[in-house]
Model the fold of this input.
Amino acid sequence: MSEAGEAAAAGSILRVRGLDAGYGGFPVLHGVDLDVSAGEIVAVVGPNGAGKSTLLKTIFRLLPAQAGSVRFDGADLRRTPAHGLAAMGMGYVPQENNTFPDLSVRDNLAVALRGQNPIEIRRKIRAVGEAYPALAGRMGQNASTLSGGERQMLALASAMITSPKFLALDEPTTGLAPSIVRERIDDILRIRDAGTTLLWVIEESPLLCLPHVDRVFVMQAGVLDPPVTSQAVLEDAALHSLFFGVDQAAEQSPD
Ligand SMILES: Nc1ncnc2c1ncn2[C@@H]1O[C@H](COP(=O)(O)OP(=O)(O)OP(=O)(O)O)[C@@H](O)[C@H]1O
Ligand SMILES: [Mg+2]
Done:
């Protein structure tokens, strides 16, 4: 590991070492090493099927690791069940099925707080309404009636309502119009400014998203390369078209 890599590892809130995982007998991740330091925004980028979501699912104990370790805040997660991670300060917004479409916005938020005292639940839901005004007027609506951007806002708010120290986001802006992507980026930056460390999987809108991250890990075929700057990824035309497959001019054009 480089000197800079060692320094980052020393202050890591999340430390992944030699992680192998996959589905049944099919291996996907191969010896993944990843460090995220407190206060950073770290991105994971890579083409479709590279294993980005598999990495998050394995970190969050939804898939068993076949080898390697994940430590959070110094604790080895090998024996921690997935449902125990929120209490440790870990939040996760999956790529798919990240809201309950048949529940109201209010109940989506309440589910994240199940087990807490009802007065606290009401207080925290009111605070979400203040932080995300677009949700405030929609508390009684089913999540299925929200737009794509609003659903991602609800998924983010449902994760933030537990006040995590660390939040992993799996493609929170994919499929959204550029103006809405900018709104979700503002939400993400506010979360970072309030002290939450972020691991952000980015697949679309690299020109909009990557300038805001501190370091970028590139994943290809289940192998995670050592981190580089976002500028290095954006300036490498070959990486750009391979990973994102988008026309830069199209991304920069207004809605
Ligand atoms: N539930 C599953 N069962 C079997 N194979 C799976 C499953 N989920 C993903 N895979 C396979 O694992 C590999 C990695 O998939 P993964 O979803 O982690 O990629 P990704 O980088 O998140 O892609 P995308 O950018 O499309 O979200 C792919 O070959 C995929 O087909
Ligand atoms: Mg994915």
In short: Residues 23, 26, 28, 46, 48-54, 95, 203 surround adenosine-5'-triphosphate (ligand 1) (CB under 6 Å).
